Recover the amino acids of this structure.
């Protein structure tokens, strides 16, 4: 993928030097609070390789977010084709993120996600981008709202990949942003 530059970040494909941070965010109790599992190093490396290959192949994905002035990888923000049928049709563009806790609350996710929305709508040509989170994941839903995404309770769902051993993590709220809504929001900001 061609790296995307924002005011403070570089959004790029994964590099070998990012592996330790990637494992840390996928095994950290605080980061993974709303996920039913913590990844081992081997599981994390497998996901790292899969995401990096997808970004290389497609030119987008859940890509590394790096602080431009320091070169420090802080986690990922990106867009990805998802398939959670029947709840979300195959090929729907999802936006998602996961940062190390020391980078929370600094606006990095919103900044990077804005760039990815522009990429999805202007470069790829999608008509809708969606996101979803465990119903009480207020940090993530706050980002969705800052991005102008709208909740759609009629599309909320019980995530099929969340095991029954974690019933508190099953219910997911659904947010979406249509291209025309994004364009109107962009015009209003000028």
């Amino acid at each position: 993928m061609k790296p995307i530059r924002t005011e403070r970040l570089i959004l790029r494909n994964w590099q070998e030097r990012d592996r330790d941070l990637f494992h840390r965010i996928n095994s950290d109790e605080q980061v993974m609070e709303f996920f039913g599992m913590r990844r081992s190093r081997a599981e994390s490396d497998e996901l790292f390789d899969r995401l990096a290959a997808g970004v290389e192949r497609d030119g987008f994905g859940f890509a590394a977010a790096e602080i431009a002035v320091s070169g420090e990888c802080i986690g990922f923000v990106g867009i990805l084709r998802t398939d959670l049928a029947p709840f979300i049709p195959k090929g729907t563009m999802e936006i998602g993120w996961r940062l190390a806790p020391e980078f929370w609350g600094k606006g990095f996710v919103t900044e990077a996600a804005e760039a990815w929305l522009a990429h999805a709508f202007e470069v790829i040509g999608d008509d809708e981008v969606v996101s979803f989170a465990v119903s009480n994941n207020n940090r993530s839903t706050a980002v969705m709202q800052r991005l102008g995404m709208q909740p759609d309770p009629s599309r909320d769902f019980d995530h099929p990949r969340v095991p029954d051993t974690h019933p508190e993590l099953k219910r997911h709220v659904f947010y979406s942003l249509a291209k025309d809504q994004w364009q109107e929001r962009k015009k209003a900001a000028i």
Summary: The first strand starts at residue 4 and ends at 5. Residues 117 and 123 are 10 Å apart (CA to CA).
